[in-house]
Design a protein that fits this description.
This protein is α+β, with helices and mostly antiparallel strands. Helix content is about 15%, strand content about 30%. The strands form three sheets. Strands 6, 7, 8, 9 and 10 form a five-stranded mixed beta sheet that branches. Strands 1-2-3 form a three-stranded antiparallel beta sheet, covered by helices on one side. Strand 2 and strand 3 (about 25-30) form a beta hairpin.
């Protein structure tokens, strides 16, 4: 079994302390993911009453928060290539890595436009498609087009 580190928690202390050990045995000052794991553990074990809560690490005192997404979440990672081009990677709850999404590409274009990072016409490139959005408003965008049937009703030939 392997790991990229081991977490040791002193939860009984007035200020919970997190020690993080690397695979080579050295002690790390902080770990973002380790802090998230600790925050979740402290909350689930009811060792902290409120959020945020302070935690001590070898790198100093940090504040932890747990933001549970009971229905999970979608994540879009956007790269602004230039004022007319975005690259988009998508992770959808329940589906995982997604090759293309109209609503995700619209959201990315609308936010980039609102932040004045792109012009009113932008092409969003995803691994499975490239969609061109025109006349993007800062509050959203829409798309029209044909919808072609791919399947026929069962029992009909």
């Amino acid at each position: 079994m392997g790991a990229d580190g081991v977490l040791l928690v002193e939860a009984a202390a007035a200020l919970p302390r997190l020690c993080i050990f690397n695979p080579d045995g050295s002690e790390a000052e902080k770990s973002g993911n380790g802090l998230r794991i600790l925050a979740r553990y402290l909350r689930d074990a009811r060792l902290v009453a409120t959020e945020p809560s302070a935690v001590s690490t070898p790198g100093g005192e940090v504040v932890c928060r747990v933001h549970p997404f009971p229905h999970r979440t979608n994540v879009q990672l956007v790269e602004v290539v230039d004022r007319t081009t975005l690259h988009l990677a998508i992770w959808e709850r329940g589906a995982g890595y997604t090759l293309a999404s109209g609503s995700s590409s619209c959201a990315a274009a609308a936010v980039a436009r609102r932040l004045d990072l792109v012009d009113a016409e932008v092409t969003v490139h995803m691994p499975g498609a490239a969609w061109r959005w025109r006349s993007i408003r800062t509050g959203g965008c829409g798309r029209r087009g044909r919808c072609a049937g791919l399947l026929r009703e069962l029992g009909r030939g």
